[in-house]
Amino acid sequence: MILKNGIQYFITIFVLLFVSQNNPVFGENSESYWTDISDLRINKTSVAKGEETVIRFHAEVPAGKILKAYSFSLSYDSQIISVVSVITSPGSDFPPAFINNQNPGQIVFNGFSLKGVAGERDLSFIDIRIRAIAGGNFYFSAVANSFGSSASEQFFPIADDLPVFAFSGTVIPGDMDNNGRADLKDAVPVLQVLSGEKPVRPIFLEAEVDGNGRVGVEEAVYILQLSAGLRNIPGDIDGNGNTDLADAVLVFRILTGHASDIDISVKSDTDGNGRIGMEEGVFILQKVAGKIF
C-alpha cells in the first residue's frame, strides 16, 4: 500500500464519494489497455510455471476532458498466478495515491488531483509483477469504478482484458485451458467460440488438434470423443490423459519384459500397428523434448 492508514482512509472515502456520479459516459474515444515495461502494447502475455513477468496498466484521457480522480479494480486467477508486487509505473503523470493487492485475485487502486490531467493524454498507472504457479489461462480484467473530472462528469474508458497464459509443461492436444490435461471442460470454450460467444477463458491455440492454427469443430469433436473414451492420446501408455516421461518408462519396461503387472493402453500406440514397441518410446521422448506437438 501507499501512504499512511489515515491518509489512505481519507483518499478512499474521497473517491467513493466521487464515484456517486450522475451521467457516466462509457468509452468516449478512450480505453484502458496493457503494455510490457517498455510501453509496447500487448494483447496477451505468456509465462512459464515458476517464472515471472511484468505487465503495465494504462488508460486514456479523451480530448477535451480533464481527469481529476479515478478508481480501478483489477481481477485475476490466483490459482494460476501470484502477484509478486504492484508499484506505480515509473514516470507516471498521474500516480495512484492508494494501491491494495492484499486480497488474492484482486488489485484496487485510485488517485485524485485538484488540478487534474487534461486530455488527450495516455496515462500509465501501475506495474504488476506476476509469477506463474500453475498451468492455465485466464483474463486479467479491469473495471473502472470512477474516471472523470467531477461526480457528474464521468468518462469511463473501454476496458481491455488481457489474456494470460501460464505454461506448465508439454502441450497436450485438446487441452484448451492449458491445465495439463484434455477433458470435458476444454470443450466449453471451443463451443462458445463456435457459437460466436467470447470464451469464458482465453483459448490455448497451441493445443488445437489439426495443425491449422484455429479452433473449430475438429477440436470440439476430438475433445468430446476423448472425454467419452472413444479416442486415445498417442503415446499415453498409462491412459492418464498425458503423454510424458512416465509413459516412456512403461514402454521400456515392456521392451525388457518387466510390465506384466501394469494396465497398458495398447490403443495409444503411435504407428497404428496395435503394439507397443520402440517406435512408441522414441515418439514419447521426442514429444516430451518438444520435438513433436
Overview of the structural elements:
The chain has 293 residues and is an alpha+beta fold. The chain has helices spanning 5-18, 187-194, 217-227, 245-255, 278-288, and strands spanning 25-35, 45-48, 52-61, 66-75, 81-88, 98-100, 106-118, 121-132, 136-150, 153-158, 162-167. The chain has 3 domains: 5-167, Sandwich (Immunoglobulin-like); 170-231, Dockerin domain (Type 1 dockerin domain), CATH 1.10.1330; 232-293, Type 1 dockerin domain (Orthogonal Bundle), CATH 1.10.1330.10. Strands 1, 2, 3, 4, 5, 6, 7, 8, 9, 10 and 11 form an 11-stranded mixed β-sheet that branches. The relative contact order is 0.14.
Helix coverage percent: 10-25%
Spans of at least 5 consecutive residues with low confidence: 13-22
> Within the CATH hierarchy, at the fold level, what is the topology of the largest domain?
Immunoglobulin-like
Main structural class: alpha+beta
User: Could you tell me the radius of gyration in angstroms?
Assistant: 25 Å
Following the backbone from N to C, one meets helices and strands in this order, namely HEEEEEEEEEEEHHHH
Question: Quick one: overall form?
Answer: elongated
Summed over residues and divided by their number, the pLDDT gives a mean of 85
- What is the CATH architecture annotation of the largest domain? Sandwich
- Look at the structure and give the CATH class of the largest domain: Mainly Beta
Major β-sheet, in short? 11 strands, mixed
End-to-end gap: 44 Å
Strand proportion, as a percent range, falls in 25-35%
Oligomeric state: single chain
**Number of domains as seen in the coordinates:** 3
Number of strands: 11
The number of helical elements comes to: 5
